[in-house]
Amino acid sequence: MPKLLEVRELATHFFTRDGIVRAVDGVSFSLDPGQTLAVVGESGSGKSVTALSLMRLVAEPAGRIVSGEALYNGVDILKMSDSQVREFRGDRMAMIFQDPMTSLNPVYKVGRQVGETLMIHKGMSRKDSIKRAIELLEMVGIPNASERAGNYPHQFSGGMRQRAMIAMALACDPDILIADEPTTALDVTIQAQILELMTEMQRRTGAAIIMITHDLGVVADVADEVMVMYAGKQVEYGKSAEVFYRPKHPYTWGLLDSIPRHDVSEKDALLPITGHPPSLINVPSGCAFHPRCPYAADICRTQVPSLIDCGNGHLAACHFAGAREFIRGVDPAKWKAA
Amino acid sequence: MLKYVLRRLLQMIPVFLGVTLLLFMLRAPGILPGDPVRMITGERPISEALRAQIVEKHGLDQPLHTQYWMYVTNLVQGDLGESYQRGRPVVDIFAEKFPNTLRLALAAIIIEILIGISAGIISAVRQYSFWDVFVTLSTSVLVSVPVFWLGMLLQIFFGIQMKEWTNETFFLPISGMSSAQFPDWAHVILPALTLASVSTAYVARIMRSQMLEALGQDYIRTAYAKGLSRRAVTFRHALKNAMIPVVTFVGIDFGAMMGGAILTETVFSWPGVGREIFLAVGQRDWPVVMGGVIIVVIIVMVINLLVDLSYAALNPRIRYGGEAK
Amino acid sequence: MTTAEMTTGKVADGAGRTLWGDAWRRLRKNRLAILGLSWILVVVLMAVTADLWVPHMFADPLKIDTTPGASLQSPSLEHPFGTDKLGRDVFSRVIYGARVSLMVGIIAVSISLLIGVVLGAISGYFGGLADTIVMRSADVFFAFPYILFAIALIAVLGPSYQNVFIAIGILGWPGIARVFRSSILSVKQNEYVEAARAMGASHVRILFRHIMPNAIAPIIVYATMSIGGAIITEAALSFLGMGVQPPTPSWGLMLSDARALMFSAPWLTIWPGFAILTTVLAFVLMGDGLRDALDVKMKD
User: Fold this and answer.
1) By the CB < 8 Å criterion, does C12 face chain A?
2) C258 interaction partners in chain B (CB closer than 8 Å)
3) Which of A20, A126, A287, B304 is most buried as measured by Cβ atoms within 10 A of its Cβ?
4) pLDDT, position A69
5) Neighbours of A (≥3 Cβ pairs closer than 8 A)?
């Protein structure tokens, strides 16, 4: 039985006057129903573009999905015709975006926007779609839902808007929900609420979630599987527990080290990753992370690492990932000497 | 919303007073070179008795602020004085001419809306295409064209050349509001086109830039993500946002046309408000001039107020106030 | 159509580029703007040097020729644009007309700038009562339709060349004041102004050294477009007989003369109007180009 979603070697490039931006360069993963995959990385790592590629929302002609497959129940999304994609979007796969204020149309009432997909995909009448929209708004925890449906976006608070966006995305009961940094634009207190809401909705509807975030704290609570991206490539992929407790890629170590933790003593202060994200036009040779990696060796500069299986479906793209002693916290000096 | 309306109305009052003050100062003795009595009677010689009468009637020997007050109170009651050249009340003269200008302005607005909006939308949706370049260039050209020259060119072309070329079968009237040869509506074509020309260019430009801005917003991305077709996204989501400033512009433009059509009216001998004022200037019929100007200003202010209110009504952020928790 | 994330990864350019240098480079690339600029330069050159070559190569623009057959000639080699009713060479008059138009454009807009920038600065920087007074006054001006107000002003001042500058200049200040004020308001919020104030700089110093240079860009664009507007207004006023008086050649005046002869001598109508069109268009294109060139810089 084919997986719900199977992505193989997805590559999306942007063709600009300054050169080709390799925003996504060979990403593969899969998704089962009811599962949550977290895609983690810095800005510019390609995580959002991956999501947009799946939704076929990449702006042509500047951007193009140059290769790869994305099989939804065996059907390749990337090869669908425009009208097929339109049927698919919003109905079987839905997406919510980072900033709920700008992502909602300011001149239409919220109820109408939430119900719009029902009108398009399920052929509901305006009245019926709004009725259902009210039910959905209630489901996501918005009080006075019937009154609220008649409000405009600017009359909602930030957290409520994001709830409305979630309701909007779930309207047609999609199999896959992609959430692009859903909590980044919200207050910290609201963030937890929204995450809780999403997990509950997932429980209720059985949808799979692809959660895009740069915040590992979010990931820890919510994800079944984690994919870490860097410079358009995936550098680590595996079950959540594996990646958190037995990470195998120096970039992941860096990310984990830079999470502020209340239980870590002051001596082990925050360790930022030195340097800055690479240009996606002039990607560093070999392993893209090598300029910032404390463990970089000659091979890292010349050869692009492929994904090495560290057991249990845990993959890491580092030349040394296979070595058992290459674990988080190993002293760079000692490692290089050996 | 009601608060907004009241606030705007209140704001209008000082502006209105400012306008009347300015106009009053323009014709007041001391500022305008010459004899204030002459301003009312014109150049003809008059008897002492008549002079005394006029001074008395218009309070010309009173202190300035009293005169101003008289002016304003008369104004509010609808008394704008009398045209000396014609001996009729100024208000009557303009009441006659007003519908003519209205007709012209309406025709021009319709053209402006139809052509300008569609040109702007097409230009935005097909950015960088031939059409877009064409619209952008022609709008730049139209904005630089002197309206009266355009009118004259149209007259030459449609009134004379076409007449020659088509052996007198097809040509358009080029002056006046009506004639024996043509139905009334034919007369409005050329003047309306002329009057609309510059505005159409502006409308197309504004529509284009507003559409482009709207189409670049995040909610457009959301709309596509929901599976909407390109047509639905453009016309249902983007357009409604982009239209608001365009509607505002068209409204204000309509007001401006009411008083600013003078050049077109002159070229086409169209008996409207603007032309009347201009003729009065030539005849030194100051009551008509000042009266006409104040009428036009009032019309413009009222229209601007209506435009402001419609903007508030169209923009949910103003209509429904701020955030609720 | 979507706003996809992209890292262009441009390496920071170490070379010190000035703001204006950047803008100039961008302007250079805009072909239409350069076209506009070139045409303006051509017109200016022709107008300024007119005395040197026009009367000799063509004719004295004021010279009336009443010999029979001299008037209303169609274009020929001797008179490239033909002659008018008084036998005057139209081509020379068009060239000399450029003088009038350019003078009006520059002087009138300068007057507007003078008044508008000062009032706009006071209004924007100090706010409060000064702001209200200035803005309400601007509203009063805006309540009048432009051409009508111009006519009314000229009616009061008397029709003449000089009064045209004054009238157009006076009409232009509210627009400039408004633009400058909003520009100042947005710059005022920036942190470097706070920093300057914290250092104890006086109001004047802050205004001149910190705010003005940044607020000036939109004014430059607006002023350029205004010159185009001023030229058209002068033409309109002269057309109505309320501007430049005969025998001074003015494009608007020439059009007014041409009107009676529209059918018998259409060339009289075409050339002066065309001159207005091209000159104003040049300023509009330049203004557009300036706006684009300066805009990107202003995005931060």
Assistant:
1) no
2) 152
3) A287
4) 92
5) B, C
Q: Retrieve residue B67's tokens.
A: 């005169």
Higher pLDDT, C262 or C163: C163
Q: Taking CB atoms and an 8 Å cutoff, what residues of chain B touch A152?
A: 316-317, 320
Instruction: Provide the 8-state DSSP code for C83.
Output: B
Would you call A6 exposed, middle or buried from its count of C-beta atoms within 10 A (0-12, 13-18, 19+)? middle
Segment B41-45 mean pLDDT:
63
**pTM for the predicted model, two decimal places:** 0.81
- Measured in angstroms, the CA of A105 and the nearest CA of chain B are apart by 5
What letter would DSSP give residue A89? Answer: B
- Identity (one letter) of the amino acid at A38? A
The pLDDT of C246-261, averaged and rounded, is: 86
Query: Do residue C156 and residue B26 have CB atoms under 8 angstroms apart?
Result: yes
Q: Does C8 touch chain A (CB under 8 A)?
A: yes
Residue A144 contacts C where some CB pair is shorter than 8 Å: no
**Given B217, B224, B237, which is nearest A102 (Cβ)?**
B217
* pLDDT at res. C192: 67
A154 interfaces chain B, CB cutoff of 8 Å = yes
Shortest distance, CA C235 to any CA of chain B (angstroms): 8
- What are the tens digits of pLDDT across the range C67-126? 666 566 676 766 777 777 777 778 888 888 898 899 999 999 999 999 998 898 888 888
Give B-chain residues touching A86 at CB under 8 angstroms. Answer: 227-229
Mean pLDDT for all residues in chain B: 82
B25 touches chain C (CB under 8 A): no
CB contact (8 A) between residue B26 and residue C152 = yes
Task: Inform me whether the C-beta atom of residue C13 falls under 8 Å from chain A C-beta atoms.
Answer: no
How many Å apart are CA C130 and CA C120, to the nearest integer?
A: 10
Kindly list the distances between the CA atom of residue B62 and the CA atoms of B56, B68, B186, B267, C187, in Å, as whole numbers in the listed order. Answer: 9, 10, 52, 42, 50
